[in-house]
C-alpha cells in the first residue's frame, strides 16, 4: 500500500513534473511560433509601408516629370480651328492634386467626384478681356481639364486696369497667348489652347462643338455664340459688364431659354454702348467673371446651375444684387423653337448691323456731305474761318482732355434740350455769326471721342436749326478726338 502509495505518489510527482515540463515546452514553442509570426507580420507590415512609400515617390516623380514636360512645351498660338484629341481620362487624383485642391475637395457638394469631372471638362472662353481673365483664372486654378482661350486683339495699356491676366511685359502680344502664359504659370496641369482668331459663322460651330463656351461680349458675337451653342447642344454662361453694372445668365441649359428667346431682334446699333465708349470700373467685370466661373464650375462638376432662366444683375454703386426670373424657352424661337428657321450659322455682322468687335464700332448715321475728316478740320482751323466746335462728350471725359477752343455741351443735354445749355449755344452761335460778317449759316462742328455721338448731335442740331436756334450748317468730325490724337496732334492724350 505504502509502496504502492509511494509509487503512486512517486509516479504522481513524476507525471506532475512531466506535465509541468510539457506545458513549459508548449509555452516555449507557442511563444517561439508566435514570436516568428509577429516578426513576420512586422516584416510584412514594414514591406507594405516601404511599398506605399515607393509608390508615393514614383507618383511624385511622375507628376514632376509631367509638369516639366508640359512647361517645356512652348504654347502654340492657333490661328485656325483644328480637331482636338479627347482629354486623357483621369480615374484618381494624385497626391499633388489632393494637396492643391484640398480646400475644395472637402466641400460635400464638390468632393473627389466633382474634381474628377472638372478634370474631364473643356471650356472655351470667348474673349480674354475684363470678364474672360478672371473666368479663365478661376477655372484654371480650380483644375479644369482644358481651357480654350479665344481673342483676336492684342494687349493694350488701357486693358490692364481690368484684364488682370495681362501685364506690362505682354503689351502688344496677342491676348490669347498672354492669357495662356499666365494660366500656365498658375496651373501647368491645365491644357491651354490659345486661339488668335475672330469667331465667325464659318468657324464657330466647329470650335464650339469641342467645348461648351462661356463668355461673349458684343452683340453679333452674342447671337453667333448663342446659335452655335443651340445647334451644338451646349450651355452658354454669359455675362456682361458696363460702367458700374453687371449681368449674368445661363442660356440653353436644363430646358431654359436661349439668348434669342429673350432677344429675338438685335437692338439698333446706336443704342448699344461698349466699355470703350461707356467706360467700366475694372473690378465690375472682375466680379462678374468670377460669377461666370462659379456657374461653369457648378455645371462642369455636375451640380445644378441656379442661373438658368434667371438674370442676375449687379449694381456696383449700391453693391446690390438682384435676381430676375426670365421668360421660359419660346416655342416660336428662330433657333431653339419648334420650327427653327436658323439651322446653320450666318453672317451676324450683317444681321446685327454692327461689327463683331468691342472697340471700333463705327456708326453711320450721316451722309458723306455732313461729315469732315480731322485733316479737313485742321485746314478750317488754319484758314481762320469763324466757326463753333461743339464737344458733345460727357463732362467727365472733357476733364480728361479737350481742345481749348471748343464749347462743351454733352449729348445728353442736347437730347434733353437743357435750357441753360441751349441758351449758351444760342449765344455762342450769335457771337460767331457776328464774327462771320456775312449772311451765311454759322458752321458748327460736333466732335466726340470716336465719332459716334457727334453724329447723333448733328441730327439733333439739324432739328433745332431754324426754330430753337439760328440757321446753322452742322457737320461732325469723323473719328473724333482719338483720330485727332492719332493723325494731327500726337501729344493729345488717348483714352
Ligand atoms: Zn431660343
TrEMBL record:
Predominant location: cytoplasm
Rhodanese domain ranges (all copies): 383-493
Gene3D superfamilies referenced in this protein's UniProt entry, alphabetically: NAD(P)-binding Rossmann-like Domain, Rhodanese-like domain
Catalytic function, reaction form: [molybdopterin-synthase sulfur-carrier protein]-C-terminal Gly-Gly-AMP + S-sulfanyl-L-cysteinyl-[cysteine desulfurase] + AH2 = [molybdopterin-synthase sulfur-carrier protein]-C-terminal-Gly-aminoethanethioate + L-cysteinyl-[cysteine desulfurase] + A + AMP + 2 H(+); [molybdopterin-synthase sulfur-carrier protein]-C-terminal Gly-Gly + ATP + H(+) = [molybdopterin-synthase sulfur-carrier protein]-C-terminal Gly-Gly-AMP + diphosphate
Cofactor detail note: Binds 1 zinc ion per subunit.
Entry's family note: In the N-terminal section; belongs to the HesA/MoeB/ThiF family. UBA4 subfamily.
Alphabetized InterPro entries for the sequence: MOCS3/Uba4, Rhodanese-like_dom, Rhodanese-like_dom_sf, ThiF/MoeB/HesA, ThiF_NAD_FAD-bd, Ubiquitin-activating_enz
Role according to the record: Plays a central role in 2-thiolation of mcm(5)S(2)U at tRNA wobble positions of cytosolic tRNA(Lys), tRNA(Glu) and tRNA(Gln). Also essential during biosynthesis of the molybdenum cofactor. Acts by mediating the C-terminal thiocarboxylation of sulfur carriers URM1 and MOCS2A. Its N-terminus first activates URM1 and MOCS2A as acyl-adenylates (-COAMP), then the persulfide sulfur on the catalytic cysteine is transferred to URM1 and MOCS2A to form thiocarboxylation (-COSH) of their C-terminus.
Record key words, sorted: ATP-binding, Cytoplasm, Disulfide bond, Membrane, Metal-binding, Molybdenum cofactor biosynthesis, Multifunctional enzyme, Nucleotide-binding, Transferase, Transmembrane, Transmembrane helix, tRNA processing, Zinc
CDD domains xref list: ThiF_MoeB_HesA_family
UniProt GO cellular component terms: cytosol
UniProt-recorded name of the protein: Adenylyltransferase and sulfurtransferase MOCS3
Subcellular location: Cytoplasm, Cytosol
Domain of life (superkingdom): Eukaryota
GO molecular function: ATP binding; metal ion binding; molybdopterin-synthase adenylyltransferase activity; molybdopterin-synthase sulfurtransferase activity; thiosulfate-cyanide sulfurtransferase activity; URM1 activating enzyme activity
Cofactor: Zn(2+)
Transmembrane segments: 20-40
Amino-acid positions noted as binding Zn(2+) in the UniProt annotation, renumbered to this chain: 258, 261, 333, 336
Pathway: Cofactor biosynthesis; molybdopterin biosynthesis; tRNA modification; 5-methoxycarbonylmethyl-2-thiouridine-tRNA biosynthesis
GO terms, biological process: Mo-molybdopterin cofactor biosynthetic process; protein urmylation; tRNA wobble position uridine thiolation
Intrachain disulfide bonds: 352-360
Enzyme Commission number: 2.7.7.80, 2.8.1.11
Record: residues binding ATP: 130, 151, 158-162, 175, 217-218
Active site: 275, 448
Species this protein is from: Conger conger (Conger eel)
PROSITE patterns in alphabetical order: RHODANESE_3
Amino acid at each position: 500500500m505504502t509502496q504502492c502509495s509511494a509509487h503512486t505518489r512517486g509516479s504522481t510527482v513524476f507525471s506532475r513534473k512531466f506535465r509541468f515540463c510539457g506545458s513549459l515546452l508548449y509555452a516555449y514553442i507557442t511563444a517561439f511560433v508566435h514570436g516568428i509570426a509577429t516578426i513576420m507580420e512586422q516584416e510584412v507590415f514594414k514591406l507594405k509601408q516601404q511599398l506605399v512609400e515607393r509608390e508615393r515617390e514614383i507618383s511624385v516623380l511622375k507628376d514632376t516629370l509631367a509638369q516639366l514636360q508640359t512647361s517645356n512645351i512652348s504654347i502654340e498660338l492657333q490661328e485656325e480651328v483644328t480637331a482636338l484629341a479627347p482629354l486623357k481620362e483621369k480615374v484618381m487624383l494624385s497626391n499633388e492634386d489632393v494637396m492643391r485642391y484640398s480646400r475644395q475637395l472637402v466641400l460635400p457638394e464638390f468632393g473627389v467626384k466633382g474634381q474628377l469631372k472638372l478634370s474631364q471638362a473643356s471650356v472655351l472662353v470667348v474673349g480674354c478681356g475684363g470678364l474672360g481673365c478672371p473666368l479663365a483664372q478661376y477655372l484654371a486654378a480650380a483644375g479644369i481639364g482644358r481651357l480654350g482661350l479665344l481673342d483676336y486683339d492684342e494687349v493694350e495699356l488701357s486693358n490692364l486696369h481690368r484684364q488682370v491676366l495681362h501685364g506690362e511685359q505682354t503689351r502688344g502680344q496677342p491676348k490669347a497667348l498672354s492669357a495662356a502664359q499666365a494660366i500656365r504659370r498658375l496651373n501647368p496641369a491645365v491644357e491651354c489652347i490659345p486661339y488668335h482668331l475672330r469667331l465667325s459663322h464659318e468657324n464657330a460651330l466647329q470650335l464650339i462643338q469641342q467645348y461648351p463656351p462661356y463668355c461673349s461680349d458684343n452683340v453679333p458675337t452674342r447671337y453667333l455664340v448663342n446659335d452655335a451653342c443651340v445647334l451644338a447642344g451646349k450651355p452658354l454662361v454669359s455675362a456682361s459688364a458696363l460702367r458700374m453694372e453687371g449681368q449674368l445668365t445661363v442660356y440653353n441649359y436644363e430646358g431654359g431659354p436661349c439668348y434669342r428667346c429673350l432677344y429675338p431682334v438685335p437692338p439698333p446699333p446706336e443704342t448699344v454702348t461698349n466699355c470703350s465708349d461707356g467706360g467700366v470700373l475694372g473690378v465690375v467685370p472682375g466680379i462678374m467673371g468670377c460669377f461666370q466661373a462659379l456657374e461653369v464650375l457648378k455645371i462642369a462638376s455636375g451640380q445644378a446651375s441656379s442661373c438658368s432662366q434667371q438674370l442676375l444683375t449687379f449694381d456696383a454703386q449700391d453693391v446690390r444684387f438682384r435676381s430676375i426670373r426670365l421668360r421660359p424657352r419660346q416655342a416660336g424661337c428662330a433657333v431653339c423653337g419648334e420650327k427653327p428657321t436658323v439651322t446653320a450659322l450666318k453672317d451676324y455682322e450683317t444681321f446685327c448691323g454692327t461689327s463683331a468687335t468691342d472697340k471700333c464700332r463705327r456708326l453711320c448715321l450721316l451722309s458723306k456731305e455732313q461729315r469732315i475728316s480731322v485733316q479737313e478740320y485742321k485746314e478750317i482751323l488754319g484758314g481762320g474761318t469763324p466757326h463753333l466746335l461743339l464737344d458733345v462728350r460727357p463732362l467727365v471725359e472733357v476733364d480728361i482732355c479737350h481742345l481749348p477752343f471748343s464749347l462743351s455741351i454733352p449729348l445728353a443735354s442736347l437730347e434733353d434740350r437743357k435750357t441753360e445749355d441751349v441758351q449758351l449755344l444760342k449765344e455762342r452761335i450769335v457771337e460767331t455769326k457776328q464774327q462771320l460778317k456775312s449772311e451765311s449759316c454759322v458752321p458748327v462742328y460736333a466732335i466726340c471721342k470716336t465719332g459716334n455721338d457727334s453724329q447723333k448731335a448733328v441730327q439733333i442740331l439739324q432739328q433745332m436749326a431754324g426754330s430753337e436756334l439760328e440757321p446753322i450748317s452742322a457737320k461732325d468730325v469723323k473719328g473724333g478726338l482719338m483720330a485727332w490724337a492719332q493723325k494731327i496732334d500726337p501729344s493729345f492724350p488717348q483714352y
